[in-house]
Design goal:
Number of helices: 3
Strand content: 25-35%
Order of helices and strands: EEEHEEEHH
Number of domains: 1
Largest sheet: 6 strands, antiparallel
């Protein structure tokens, strides 16, 4: 949320990553499981941030990913980092000339997105174990979440 969704990967170009669609959060205590689903075009996701302050964890999120000006959309499951409802850019191959080309182009587009997500995850892990996590990233993340708590209670 801090870089307008633009993330510079170490060994590749930059990618754009945004929440899109819906975010599902879950709270499990000893007696009940409480689920919150936030959807719409609210770019600040104040309801999701408020749910985070209440101890809920994100279980799935709609994602929009742009790699080399190609747009992908999918839902990312938090437990196993599975992709669901995965959509690639339109395949441009003409199937009358090369029927197998459609398959290979679609497979190539899928690999490009999966590779970008792998690189994003590797960058996250590197940041997460660095000293910058506690000194810069975690305080910023906490402030962003708490700003959602304040907005939700004042509206």
């Amino acid at each position: 949320m801090t870089g307008h969704g633009i993330i510079d990967l170490n060994d590749a170009d930059e990618v754009e990553l945004r929440f899109a669609g819906k975010i599902t959060l879950l709270s499990e205590d000893d007696e009940t499981a409480d689920t919150v689903t936030c959807s719409g075009v609210n770019s600040r996701f104040k309801e999701a941030r408020f749910a985070l302050t209440q101890g809920k964890k994100i279980t799935s999120a709609g994602i929009r990913l742009v790699v080399d000006e190609e747009e992908y959309s999918f839902t990312l499951d938090s437990k196993w980092l599975n992709f669901r409802a995965f959509k690639t850019p339109k395949v441009l191959q003409d199937d009358s000339n090369d029927p197998d080309g459609l398959f290979y182009e679609k497979a190539g587009l899928t690999e490009k997105a999966v590779s970008a997500m792998d690189n994003l995850f590797a960058c996250f892990i590197k940041l997460r174990i660095s000293p910058e996590w506690k000194s810069r990233e975690m305080p910023g993340l906490t402030a962003w979440v708490r700003a959602g708590e304040h907005r939700a209670t004042t509206q």
